[in-house]
User: Fold UDP-glucose 4-epimerase from Acidimangrovimonas pyrenivorans.
Amino acid sequence: RDLRVLVTGGAGFIGSHACKALAAAGARPVVLDDLSTGHADAVRWGPLVRADVRDRAAVRAALTEHEATCVLHFAGKAYVDESVRDPAKYYDNNVGGMIGLLAGCTAAGVDRIVFSSSCATYGVPERLPITEATPQRPITPYGRTKLICEQMLRDHDDAHGLRHVSLRYFNAAGADPEGEIGERHDPETHLIPRALLAAAGQAPALKVFGTDYPTPDGTCIRDYIHVSDLARAHVRAIEHLMMGGGGSLALNLGSGKGLSVHEIAATVEAVTGRAVPVEAAPRRPGDPPELTADPGLAARLWGFRSERSGIAEIVRDAAPWFGL
Ligand code: UFG
Assistant:
């Protein structure tokens, strides 16, 4: 029978792409989402249970009724700057969400979880690129909630043998190459969509948050990975857990390449043929100067490599969502 996977946050950006990849691999995603930020029309590959992951009874019921045997846990809040201004919202949703999920899973007898963690758990790393052994010293409430969730999973493994994988995403970007789903955040804070909005004339200019960082062009450097590559990694993580892989595994998911804000703006111009007006702006609180992944461990353990994460491909796949 097909494998049933509960996907919390499956109506969101990365979650919906993971559902598509699961369905393509022959599994059935069951989405649990409260639609606070997700979109019901992005749930296309299985049923939608409208519920909050903090509601442990709802998690238990969804697992039991749909006979799910493992979980992809995407649900959570993910605006770094908002977490600095309103930490309670992040502890409540992200840590509270993990509490609800673990309680629901325990009640339903489900012991396999793949968790959406983040490079934000590393804070400002002493050395680049970042490996999984790099000390995790987050500098924002958002990063701290993700680190606490990783630790909660490890504690449940120690106590009850919970099998789990924490996937530390670098910067998720792009959209489904077939155009079925894309990135729709409100407000949109991420760099590539904002650069596309500026190129499309839907925003006056791209604000560049900080031009005096200790980087070659003075702007922040990030590692962008295509959302479809991320989605594929989740299918691989489920396979790992279903094949009996255990323990507390944590893996970086990035392209291994660092690109500055200016380089992104230049790529958007090259790919779309439109100008991206830019405007220097103050630094954004909580932004480390440079984050790049060493993606080697996922390659060694799983043979996983990003395939669509060249920056031109990422921008090309995202552009149609902005009418470009
Ligand atoms: N940036 C701008 N102008 C913008 C938007 C972004 O200059 O209008 C800069 C940011 O300052 C940053 C870079 O572009 O240097 C990328 O910013 P994003 O907001 O696109 O993404 P982040 O690097 O802030 O990503 C972070 C964490 C992720 C986390 C994500 C959640 O690195 O782990 O926020 O939204 F998941």
